[in-house]
């Protein structure tokens, strides 16, 4: 698999997205995808991405457009405050922004600038970074829904990571894996840095199941130190409501100062090539996904 480098992936993905996806799945799970009979969660995610209409995925994976859908679904109170949206960084009027906020692009992952003190922000460097991120083509050829998102910049409320159930260097990210309108697994991530992240895998009743995870130098065992979220039941109910029309989707949340916040919706978690769950776990989750006929 070493020959499938980044440049080669782009070329191969242009020629045959399914072949590229199958090769990458082989690297993650040890076998190629049977497109006529996909079984694991990875395989079914990729099957859905390349064999169904993903127009709605585009709207809901867009960190700006998803906000209007949350309002339509009656979940507006879960959204962090929105301070602005722009097509290019030059249009941002920093004088109108509060002292603390977060800047991000709506189409990528990790394209964020956390501003804890506006007075210390190098505005010109921030504009350059944001414009560079706007040029990024996010998403693999087998993720066409990302490629259709119009890149924009948004500024949102900066959630206070110090007001969480336990001390964490980052926001605790509760990732709910939903299949056909039901949360089957919650993957909680905290103490995130470039070097690694603590991860806990829970059933919806918050029982701890480390045997479902693959721990590495980067994905480190959180050792069940997270208490159940105060809003766990609301998290499950909202997830059921938002995911009921989709065979699978991951919905992320934060809980700050006792309040539940919506994070994002992801239809191709880890680009559909997850390697942080065991193969048995991926097959078990895949069994929960009912594909359209």
From TrEMBL:
It comes from the Bacteria. This is TupA-like ATPgrasp. It comes from Xylanibacter ruminicola (Prevotella ruminicola). InterPro entries: ATPgrasp_TupA (IPR029465). Pfam families: ATPgrasp_TupA.
